[in-house]
């Protein structure tokens, strides 16, 4: 009923898009989900197709591939932030969630962080890259780890973001899937505030050098170029 306000048993693309955006997934992933769910390409989902879209959202949030093969896999229900409630992602809902990075692990990650000579408490992609490559994980997984851990999108990792990166790397090494979007429990407490990034504007010019890729992901290009050396 939240989406099908006219109770017509079908959902228009515009209404569904607004609702699906609350999942916190990227537009790229949501576009893929829509294409798979809207089987006849009419821009309208019937109830069955809408359920398919919801299941695919749940798959993406739990690190599974967005594909029809994932529909039969057991996943928890999809999570949406209700924009009508004052909680939202950055409100009390997520600040009450304990951080997934345990204290003793954080101490280990901090030691690695300090050993990499951070400048002003930040590590550049170049310094993080060898540590990521050391894990011998596939480059696309490492790219996703970087994308998720660089929470403020400044091309650098601070101490907490680095801990998120290490946590995700260890998850991947334990054969746990790396999620498509950062779960609330993994967002460092220091980053859990209303997401308005006043410093985001000056970053845009510097991101033009990576305009070939969709997002500014400094290390991924470097990763791709350098991986043969680690074999």
From TrEMBL:
InterPro entries: EF-hand-dom_pair, EF_Hand_1_Ca_BS, EF_hand_dom, EH_dom. The keyword Calcium applies. It holds the Pfam family EH. GO terms for biological process: endocytosis; endosomal transport. Residues 1-76, 105-193 form the EH domain. Coiled coil: none annotated. Residues 25-60, 137-172 form the EF-hand domain. GO terms for cellular component: clathrin coat of coated pit. One of its GO terms (molecular function) is calcium ion binding. This is EPS15 factor. The lineage of its organism: Eukaryota, Metazoa, Chordata, Craniata, Vertebrata. The gene is Eps15.
